[in-house]
Amino acid sequence: MSWLNKILDSGRTHATGGRETIDPSRRLFVGAMTTAIAAAGLGLGRPASAASPALSSFGPLKRIDAGVLSVSYAELGPADGPVVILLHGWPYDIHTYVDVAPLLAAKGHRVIVPFLRGNGGTRFLSPDTPRNGQQAALAVDVIALMDSLRIDRALLGGCDWGARTACIVAALWPERVNGLVSVSGYLIGSQELNKAPLPPKAELQWWYQYYFATERGAAGYARNTRDFARLIWQTASPKWGFDDETFARSAASFDNPDHVAISIHNYRWRLGLAQGEARFDAFEKQLAAFPNIRVPTITLEGDANGAPHPAPASYAGKFSGWYRHRTIDGGVGHNLPQEAPAAFADAVIAVGHT
Questions:
Q1: What are the residues facing 65 on neighbouring strands?
Q2: Sign of torsion over alpha carbons 200, 192, 314, 164
Q3: Which pTM does this prediction carry?
Q4: DSSP 3-state assignment of 113?
Q5: Is the omega angle on the peptide bond into residue 82 within 30 degrees of 0, that is, cis?
Q6: Which residues contact 50 (CB under 8 A, 6 or more apart)?
Q7: Per-domain residue ranges for the chain?
Q8: What pLDDT digit, counting tens, does each position of 108-145 carry?
Q9: SS3 (DSSP) at 293
Q10: Architecture of domain 2-40+59-352
């Protein structure tokens, strides 16, 4: 695969003062070429018609009991390769990484992409387990998955909820993390911090958080889950021209019987309107102190992210180890790994080489 390495290397960025910018024309060329090449080489692609190209697919998924969950996940690449775990956000699913995973597998990584609790085929093992969406619960899920798969250490990548989860695992269990790629940076939060009001424009961006705080909002999300998710996709990535088939591929994941409960609890917990579980109290106390992340890290941001997100300068100091930030140009929105898969994969490879 030396010729593929050369193509990937040609898309690398140059750092200036810790900040890197992707050239959009190079990113688009490299992204299209490497995604097609890697997918074809791994048998992931299907013949496409001229009118409607076929969507990428993970193929058969795997399943394992881990902690309180039976986790459904995709796995690509050699079983003995360095492990990369990729975590999706809300309202998205594992297809956030459907074009990233084959690129990393082609570079020799063992890539694992799990459905988070409340999504896709992941299920709770007991009907009595609280349908808890608090931040620490999702992080403990990742550690439980690693333990069940007998993975001592992994490089973590995440977007949205997945980025927050990856940041938490890196902060609380650095001995389990080889490196981190986080879209929109340091996303660890606390209920106490969320008590503080934001400027009006920032509050407006969080309209759905307040909608979910009401019973009307919970009923509305349950009744209109797919329409709601499509609206979030459109506002969070205003320049991403995803088609109906691309959306439907992910929207099927929201049919999970716990999806609505987990989603509503997550946003209510943030505002202190829902309780967490006592077994996570010690972790939340640590997170409320906003611990530094000292594992090698690259943070990424799209230049057209329409979702609420902090400015890169505001969180740079939270990464105390090797650290770079990259801004991805070319109209890239909130779902960065799916919109710019080559740029995300390149960041993972770069962190892995530190």
A1: 70
A2: negative
A3: 0.86
A4: strand
A5: no
A6: none
A7: 2-40+59-352
A8: 999 999 999 999 999 999 999 999 999 999 999 999 99
A9: strand
A10: 3-Layer(aba) Sandwich (3.40)
